[in-house]
Design goal:
There is one protein chain. By secondary structure, this protein is α+β, with helices and mostly antiparallel strands. The protein folds into two domains: about 5-130, Rossmann fold; about 135-180 and about 190-340, no CATH class. The chain is built from eight helices and 20 strands. The longest helix is centred in the middle third of the chain and has 16 residues, at about 135-150. The two termini are about 35 Å apart. The structure holds fe (ii) ion.
Length: about 350
């Protein structure tokens, strides 16, 4: 159901307060062809109400002809900032960027963050934003998880469906996504609520079984028959199963890039207000599936790049896959048991 402008303005104010927006700071709102008009209108009002100096920067979309879907996270190529010195200068000169277009990770974005600018991505529909307004408790929960990841040497994942994955850790640090940007140079995504890291390059090994009911993104489909991934030397070397496996193989084949098969980020969902079932209620064009990425107790893994963590792998292919019912261990400590976060 729709929400009122009043509700969305209040939600923005809450997120901006958590993000420590102060009177006189400069906010630039990044928009593009797919920006939700209500989200933009309410962001403009909330930022002005809070005394910010507000700009809007509208950039034309890129890569539409290369991506095979309209999902903004499906294709990680160049961004509208690539080679765009004027836009980069405007963003670097801002205290806070509200990304309502999906900038995605790029050298330019890293550069902007390094200048101290905060970036908050917010592209889910208004009612999802309003339902999943982040809280300080979200931050506490996610940071506790990233602290554990940071101290661990290995992540092991198992499931009754047959998943048995080993990921050596230590090369890349942990990342906390809790939905607001309370520090200079921080990037986050509203809504979210999960902790992640990346396996040491070319080391993850074992088997991942994507079981019935698990979710493929950007396909935004619940899998109807198991897909078995064989993982060797950090890459999914076999994708086996029935029609769902064939569809995944065909989609990945369109990128023509062996790096797309690398195990990318790994972690688990920590957001109790996000739900596994929500994706089934939405048209695929209407959401990017953050409920699926963040629901509490999932094991979220992905295939694709690791440059967002400082690795050297860039690829335009990126698949996020939340699994239910897994047990996740960091060294000898169980952090998720049978799909439930261990307190
Ligand atoms: Fe991802």
């Amino acid at each position: 159901m729709p929400i009122s402008d009043h509700q969305l303005i209040e939600a923005w104010r809450e997120v901006l307060t958590l993000s420590r927006l102060e009177t006189g700071q400069t906010v630039t709102i990044l928009t593009s062809a797919a920006t939700h008009p209500q989200t933009l209108a309410c962001a403009l009002i909330a930022t002005q109400q809070m005394g910010a100096i507000v700009n809007r920067l509208d950039l034309p979309p890129v890569n539409g002809e290369k991506a095979f879907s309209r999902d903004s996270l499906a294709y990680l190529g160049t961004t509208p900032l690539t080679g765009n010195r004027a836009a980069i200068a405007a963003l670097k000169a801002s205290d806070l960027v509200l990304d309502l277009m999906t900038l995605l990770f790029s050298p330019e974005q890293h550069d902007i963050l390094k200048s101290g600018t905060k970036i908050l991505l917010a592209v889910e529909p208004p009612e999802v934003l309003a339902r999943l307004v982040p809280t300080l408790e979200d931050r506490t929960r996610v940071l506790a998880a990233t602290k554990k990841i940071g101290a661990a040497r290995e992540m092991r994942v198992s499931s009754p469906a047959g998943t048995a994955l080993v990921c050596p850790l230590g090369e890349f640090g942990p990342t906390a996504e809790y939905g607001f940007v309370d520090e200079r140079g921080r990037w986050d995504h509203w809504p979210s609520g999960f902790a992640l890291t990346f396996p040491d390059d070319r080391t993850a090994h074992g088997t991942i079984v994507i079981d019935r009911g698990d979710i493929l993104l950007p396909q935004k489909r619940y899998v109807t028959e198991p897909i078995v991934l064989t993982v060797e030397g950090g890459y999914a070397t076999k994708i086996e199963g029935g029609v769902d496996a064939a569809l995944l193989r065909d989609y990945m084949d369109t990128f023509g890039d062996p790096e797309g098969y690398a195990i990318s980020h790994i972690g688990w969902g920590l957001q109790p207000r996000a739900r596994w079932s929500t994706l089934g209620l939405y048209d695929r064009e209407a959401t990017i599936g953050m409920d699926a990425r963040a629901f509490e107790g999932n094991f979220l893994f992905s295939l694709g790049p690791n440059n967002e963590a400082g690795g050297s792998r860039t690829t335009t292919c990126h698949i996020d896959i939340p699994l239910r019912g897994c047990t996740v261990k960091l060294d000898d400590e169980t952090v998720v048991r049978d799909g439930r976060v261990v307190a």
